[in-house]
Amino acid sequence: MRKLLSVLVFLLFFFLSAHTQNKEEETIRTLLEEQRLAWNAGHLEPFMSTYWQSDSLMFIGKSGVTYGWQNTLNNYKKGYPDTAAMGKLQFDILEVKRLSVMYFFVVGKWHLTRSIGDVAGHFTLLFKKIKNKWVIIADHSS
Questions:
Q1: Calpha distance 36→60 (Å, rounded)
Q2: Which residues 6+ apart lie within 8 Å of 126 measured at CB?
Q3: The CATH number of 2-141 is which of 3.10.450.50, 3.10.20.740, 1.20.1250.20, 3.40.630.30?
Q4: What's the CA dihedral at 74, 103, 109, 88 to 10 degrees?
Q5: What DSSP string runs through 20-61?
Q6: Which of 25, 26, 40, 53 pairs with 132 at a CA distance of 20 to 30 A?
Q7: pLDDT tens track for 1-25
């Protein structure tokens, strides 16, 4: 009887854990879709709402490392001053991997369709759950 109870408790924990992981992964994917839609509407501030609003946010791009939410936003505004430069963003999510209860790792491709010439690259994102909200704490885009 004790073995049966132990097995049932283990199975319950396993299924609840798997359900939670699937729900959390779905939340991450939804955040990325909301981010894409904000970009495509030409709204950089809502696009940046997925990022951690902290001076410790790390963005790594072709110019090196940028620290801070505001600095990252300023770089986006400088690099994409209007909707023609922004174009239409498309993501191809290659992997969403849970690292722990507090972290997710995302790998993907991005593509901007623009009248001034398309550009594309890859990205890795580190999400952290802060104050019960998933936010990007590190972004390496190339």
A1: 19
A2: 103, 104, 105, 106, 136, 137, 138, 139
A3: 3.10.450.50
A4: -50
A5: HHHHHHHHHHHHHHHHHHHHHTT-HHHHHTTB--STT-EEEE
A6: 40
A7: 666 555 444 444 444 444 456 899 9
